[in-house]
Amino acid sequence: MAHLLELDGPALAAWARRAASHLEARSPEINRLNVFPIPDSDTGSNMAHTMHSAVSALSDLPEDATAAQVTAALTRGAVAGARGNSGMVLSQVLRSLAEESGDALRAAEVTAALGRALELVSDAITRPVEGTVLSVLRAAAQAASHQQIEGDDLHRVVAAATDAAHRALARTPAQLPALKGAVDAGGQGLVVILDALLGSLAPPTTGPHLEVMFSYRGDCAALRRSLESLGTSLIIAPDGTGRAGVHIHSRRSGELIERAFVLGEVTDLRLEALPETVRAEEPGVIAVVPTGSMERLFRDAGAEVIAPGARPHREAIVLPNGLSELGGPQVVPTTRLVEGIAALAVYDPELPRDSALQVMRETVAAMRTADVHDPETLSATCRQLLRSGGELVTLLVRPDVTIDAAALRRELGVELMAYRADNLAAAVEVGVE
Prior knowledge:
Layout (H helix, E strand, L loop, with lengths): L6 E2 H25 L9 H14 L10 H15 L2 H17 L3 E2 L1 H18 L8 H18 L3 H22 L9 H16 L9 E9 L1 H8 L4 E7 L4 E8 L2 H11 E10 L12 E3 L4 H8 L3 E3 L9 E4 L17 H10 L6 H14 L1 E5 L5 H8 L6 E6 L7 H8 L2 E6 L7 E5 L1
Parallel strand pairs: 6-9, 7-8, 11-12
Antiparallel strand pairs: 1-2, 3-5, 3-6, 4-5, 10-13, 11-13
């Protein structure tokens, strides 16, 4: 999949709005992590408020503002609205982007900005402590610098920084006992922002044409502004009781649903295939995955992603309406994430739908999988699964678990792919193809 080589002003503004929405959605979770230096349970709220303040400063800019203009406005807004230590840290990260931005933001500017942010935050903190956002920021800056040496590719640089930040965040409980086994709240907020930046570099994915309907409680004007670019036939009908019925046709239903959950309360969610636009040559894949790293991985692999863990909701229903013979929804029975990854890996949109389905189902049926709860047994588990053959081992590794993938690859003598996976019950999920 092609990724953006640079972020211009409008793209940076879109990233900032996305980051603000994600911080708002994750703020209760981040607040619960807030135990250091003072357990006042407000880090998530402070970071969300600061980012929203930054975004509000964009309202005076022209639509074609440069990256320099956008980042300067974000900095002004963040500094003016910064709350708490975490808000101050966030304002300095945005300031570093402003100092390095020109007409657009490229790999070199991102690398320099992360390095500059580390300097600014280090200077601003009176008594720097490892195991905090400083450790996460340092890891991101170093990874970006190392990646840029290998090539001036913006996506690779941001991906390296984001992955390093995730790994550094997972190490924070061991670095700072005061965290009481939880990861650092400020570090988690920074990871959310980097995740949003990485997501901004991927082109919009298009999936099957769906009619999306749900009941909504919240700011209807904000919902309309957020959704109108994602589809057609948008109707928001208030019922006079504080709720509204929402209807829209879209090929970006995953992103649409995520935005709605961020902005308000969503219930009675229904998805219905639109038969007049279903095309056999573009069957599309919808994947239900946990929020976080797996959501990004499946989306980058070409799936339309619905992440039910993003916000609690009652139900999501797909209604084929008896039109399966015309290309309605078909199910590939994946019961593990590694099976879903394998199915997507062999998915060929150029094949007729039935042929593509057969290949995916055969791949899943032939897989051998296992959950590993003790990382010390990972090698033995892989060898056991490979006894009857196999060419590829796929590992999904929980962020708090460390493995030596290179050593395991040499030991097993087969191709091995390892991915970080949030929200796994097991330490490692293994799949052999």
